[in-house]
Amino acid sequence: MDFSLLRIHYQNIRDFRNLTIDFTKDGDPTQPHHVSLVQMPNGTGKTTTITLLRRVFPGSGFEEDEVYSYRPTNFPADEGIFEVEAAYDGTPFTLRLEFNYDTGEYRYHNSKPKMEGGGLEEGHWLPSEIRHIFSPSFVRLFIFDGELSKQLLKTGAAHAEAAIKSIYFLDRLEGRKQDIEEIEEDRYQSASETSAHTEQGLKNLNSRLQTVKGTLEELQEQRDELEASIKREQKQIAQLEEERQSILSEREEVLEEFNDLEHEIKEERQAIKEKTLAVLDHLRKPRYFSRGIHEDIQRLFDQMEVLKLPKPTSAEFFRDLTERSSCICNRPMTDEARQAILEGSEKYLSEEDISVLNAMKDQLRNLPEFEPVAPLFEEINESHRELRKKRQRRDGLQNQLDPNSRQRVKELDNEIQERQTDLKNRRAVLDMITTTDRSHRDQLGLGWEDNIPLCNQRVKELKAKIQEATDTVEFGKKADKLNEIIEDVVNRSLKTLEIQVRDTTNERLERILQSDEVQISHVDYSINIEDKENVSEGQSLSVGYAFLSTLFEEGPLNVPFIVDSPAVSADLQVRREVADMVPNLFEQMIVFIISSERDGFVEGLHPSGSTQYYTVFKTDDGKNIKKSMDRDFFMDFQSEEER
Amino acid sequence: MGFRLSDEAREYFRSIDQHSSTGKFNTTWDQYYLCFMAGVIERRLGEPPEADPFIEKFTVDYRDQRYELLASLVSAEIDRKGLPWEDKDGIRDLMMHLLDSSTPTNLSDDGLEMMNRYAEGGFSLIRERIPKPRDLDEFLVAYTTNFSSI
C-alpha cells in the first residue's frame, strides 16, 4: 500500500494569497520526486503547513478561533483554502479544507478517484484501506519534526512504544476497551431503567462508580509518571556515576584502590554503628551503667539482708492473731495483749508489699560484677581511627586528579546524593500507590483514594453491586474477559514486535553506518542504545530515523516522510550524517528547512532518486508569498533576519 | 500516670533520630533512661514534666532490669534524704512510699513521679554539658564521660 503526497495548494491562508507547491516530476503528475527540499524562512508559514497537513489527513475539526487565526492580515479574504493532492496506490485524490472567515466555520471537500469531471463533493474522505489508519498520532509519525526523533530515545517517555502501537494498530485494539466500557455502561443504564431497584439507588451507585473510576485514572496517571520519572532518574544517576567513574578511571590503579577504599569505608561505618548499639545495650543495664550505680544497688541489697527487709511475717498474720481467743503460745488473748500486738504489727509489711520487696531481693541477689563500658568505646574509637585513615587515603587519591576533575567529582557526588534521595522519595510514593501488601497498607492508613489495587477492588465492588441490581452479572463477566483478552493480545504482540523492530532496525543501522558500532539494545517505552556514551548526536538521530523507517517499511503502509527541521540544532557533522542516511530510508521525502540549516545538510544529501529545490519566501513588501524552483536561488537564498 | 519526658528533652534527642549515621535509639525509653540515670547519679531532681506520658510501662528493653532501676531510685532517695543505712523503719517506709506491688511498674504514683523528676533533672544536666548531638556514638561518648564514669 503506497501513499504519496503530490501537491499542496494554499489560497488566502495567512500570508499565502495563492500558491501551489508541486512535488511531482515534470511530465508525470502522479510521480513525486524522491526528495523535495522546501526552504521557508521563519514566519513564512512552515509551521502552518506542517500543522495543517497533520490536521487534514485525519480530518480533524477546528474551533472558531482557530479558523479566524488563518485569516490573512495583509489582504482581504472571506474564505481560505488548504488543499492537498495525494495518491494512493498510484490513484490520485484531493482533500480540500475550507475556512469561512465570516462565520468561523470549516468544511472539508474531497474528490474520490472515481468521480468524473474532477468535481469535489462535500465531506472528508480517504481511501477505505487507510481511512481508519490515519489517526492524529499515526500521522504525526510521518509528518514530524526532528524533535520527535529525540523523543523516541528519551528514557521514560513512551513515544517509541506508542509508535509501534500506532503503526501496527495495537492502539486501535486498545481503543476497543473503551468501546466495551461504553457498551457496558449503556447496558447497565438500560437495565437499570427496567430493574426493580430504585432509580435513585442506582443513580447513586453509578455516580459513586464514576467517582472511583476518575480517581483510578488519576492514580494510574500518577503511577505512570512516577515510573517514567524513576526510570529517567535511575538512568541519570547511572550516567553520573559513570562520569565519576570515568574521571577516576583515567588512572586505573587509582580507581581500583579508590573502589576498595569506598568499600572498606562502608564496612567500617557499619561496624561503628553496630558497636555503638552494643554500647547502648550495655548501658541499658543499670548494674553496668557506672561503678557508683552498681555500688548503690549492691548496698541496698546488702542492707535489706542486714535489716531483714522484708520481715518474713506479714502484718495480716498479727491482725488475724488478735481476733483469736488465745495466742499461738496458748496464753489467753487479753485486751492488753491484743493492743500490743496490733501496735507492733504496724512494723510489719502487708503480704503484697513483702512480695515486691522479695522479688527485688531475688533479682538483686546474684548481681554480676561491674563491667565497664570503656573497652567497647575503645573499639569504636579504633574504628573511627581506621575510618579517618581510610577517608584520608581516599581523599588523597582524589587529589591525584587535576583540580577541575576533583571539583567535578565533588559536584557529581553531591548531585548523585541529591538524586538518590529524590529517587527514594519517588519510590516511596509509587510503593504507596501500588502496594498490594495489606499490612503495609494498614500501616500507612491507605484507602481506595490512595492505592490502585484498593481502587480497582472498589470499582469491582461497585460494578458487582450495579450488576446485581440490574441483573447484568453475566454480561459484566464477559466484558471483563474480553478486556483481559485484548490486554493480553496487545502485550504479547508488543513484546514480539519490539524484538522484531529492534532486530530489523539494527540490521538497517549496520547497513547504513557500515559498522555495527551503533545498535539498539532493547525497546521498551523508548529506544535504548547500547553503549550510548560513545554514540554521536548524529548517530542517535539516525537511530530515530532508522527506527521509524523500519516501522513504516515493516508496517502495512508505505508513506512519504515529511519532516520539519530534520537536523534541528545539530552541528554540521551531524547534519551531514543525517542527510546522508535519511533519504534512502523512504521512497518520498519532503523536507522543510530554513537557510541556516542548509549548510551540511544539503551537501550531505545523496539520494538515490531525484531532488527538487523549492524556496518559498515573502515579497519585498512582505505582503505576499512567492516561490522559486531554482537550485542556485535555493542555495544562495538568505532570509531577512539572517542577512 | 506514666513515664514522662519533657518536650524539650524529646526535641534535644530528635536530631539523633533524624540524622545519626551511627545508629539510633530503639525507643523513647532509651532517651528517658539515660536522662533518669544522669539524674540519679548526680542526685538531681527536676520539676515534674508537663508532657503527656509517652508510655505506661517498662519497654521490653528494660523489663528484665526493672528491679535494678527501682533499686537505683530507692538508693538515690535514701542518699538524697540523708537516711542512715541502718534506719530499718525509715528505709522500709521509704520503699513502701515509692513502690507498689499492684501497679504494672511496681512503682507507686509518688515513685513514678520521682522517676520522672530524676529524668528531668538528668536532662537539664545533659543539656548543660553536652551540645545538641547529631550522631549516637558521639553522644554516648560525651554522655559516659560526664555521667557513666562516676
Number of helices of chain A: 23
Principal-axes geometry of chain B comes out as: globular
- The proportion of strand residues of chain A reads 5-15%
Mean pLDDT of chain B: 91
Regarding quaternary structure, how should these chains be classified? heterodimer
Radius of gyration of chain A: 41 Å
**Most extensive interface:** A-B, 47 and 47 residues
Number of strands of chain A: 16
Describe the structure in your own words:
The complex is a heterodimer of chains A (643) and B (150). Chain A is α/β, with parallel strands linked by helices. Chain A has helices at residues 46-56, 64-69, 128-131, 136-142, 146-153, 159-167, 170-194, 199-248, 252-283, 286-289, 291-306, 315-322, 335-345, 351-365, 374-399, 403-434, 438-444, 452-470, 473-513, 537-554, 572-581, 595-604, 631-636; strands at 3-13, 16-22, 24-25, 28-32, 35-39, 79-88, 91-100, 105-111, 121-122, 143-145, 520-523, 527-529, 561-564, 589-593, 611-618, 625-628. Chain A contains 23 helices and 16 strands. In chain A, the strands form four sheets. In chain A, strands 2-1-6-7-8-9 form a six-stranded antiparallel β-sheet. In chain A, strands 10-13-14-5-15-16 form a six-stranded mixed β-sheet. The model of chain A has no long low-confidence stretch (mean pLDDT 84). Chain B is an all-alpha fold and 150 residues long. Chain B has helices at 7-19, 28-41, 60-63, 66-81, 88-98, 109-129, 136-148. The mean pLDDT of chain B is 91. Chain B is built from seven helices and no strands. At the A-B interface, α9, α10, α11, α14 and α15 of A face α2, α4, α5 and α7 of B.
